[in-house]
Design brief:
- The structure holds 2 protein chains of 2 kinds.
- Chain A is globular and about 45 Å long.
- Chain A is mainly β.
- In chain A, a hairpin with a 2-residue loop joins strand 7 and strand 8.
- Chain B is 0% helix and 60% strand.
- In chain B, strand 4 and strand 5 form a beta hairpin.
- Chain B is globular, with a radius of gyration of 14 Å.
- Classes of the chains: A mainly beta, B mainly beta.
- Chains A and B meet through strand 5, strand 6 and strand 10 of A and strand 5, strand 9 and strand 10 of B.
């Protein structure tokens, strides 16, 4: 079945540091890929998505590129802020009709001033 | 625009008491609706999903149940809560097809069972 693997956290960075959160997936066909962010005490918010190979999703300074050859969708940001502290979830939607979303375990990011 | 509401936001219940959590969606028709649970510091566990009124699929056998009495309303229930039912309950909706297919989440309900 489909699955998503994320790097284990927590990740702790200083403000203005470069961020990478790794995500790899296993799926047949051409899934859509997503990153969600969860701030403390809140629900998940869609951060960005990509629906085909080599697509780059971007939002709020974050970006991720759909790499079919490496089955990866790593999240990056050039300069993190304290307000980026949250849990980040990688997810995929399979290409077959009716498949549910599959979420990774989440990666907690803490940004220190 | 579409919005999703969850009620209540926070709930503290004794073991053995009943539970009813409500989720309502505005601004869309015939959405797929989902209930997830998130234990403290953990990932998402899919509990139930519904593709239409009265249609419920269960992913994990447990003492919880779900109902969809109206197109935009999804309810999570229990007759007798267990300590292990504590967690953050998230409702989600999903619309669109193909590349537009995306899932959105509500604000969540924090349930503490004592």
């Amino acid at each position: 079945g489909n699955s998503v693997t994320q790097m284990e956290g927590p990740v702790t960075l200083s403000e203005e540091a470069f961020l990478t959160i790794n995500c790899t997936y296993t799926a047949t066909g051409y899934p859509s890929l997503f990153w969600y962010v969860q701030y403390p005490g809140e629900g998940l918010q869609l951060l960005l998505k990509a629906t085909k190979a080599d697509d780059k999703g971007s939002n709020k300074g974050f970006e991720a590129t759909y790499r079919k050859e490496t089955t990866s969708f790593h999240l990056e940001k050039g300069s993190v802020q304290v307000s980026d502290s949250a849990v980040y979830f990688c997810a995929l939607k399979g290409s077959s009709y009716g498949q549910n979303f599959v979420f990774g375990p989440g990666t907690r990011l803490s940004v220190l001033p | 625009s579409q919005t999703i509401h969850q009620w209540p936001a926070t709930l503290v219940q004794p073991v053995g008491s009943p539970l009813s959590l409500e989720c309502t969606v505005e601004g869309t028709s015939n959405p797929n609706l989902y209930w997830y649970r998130q234990a403290a510091g953990r990932g998402l566990q899919l509990l139930f999903y519904s593709v239409g009124i009265g249609q419920i699929s269960s992913e994990v056998p447990q003492n919880l149940s779900a109902s969809r009495p109206q197109d935009r309303q999804f309810i999570l229930s229990s007759k007798k809560l267990l300590l292990s039912d504590s967690g953050f309950y998230l409702c989600a909706w999903r619309v669109g097809a193909g590349v537009l297919d995306t899932q959105y989440f509500g604000p969540g309900t924090r349930l503490t069972v004592l």
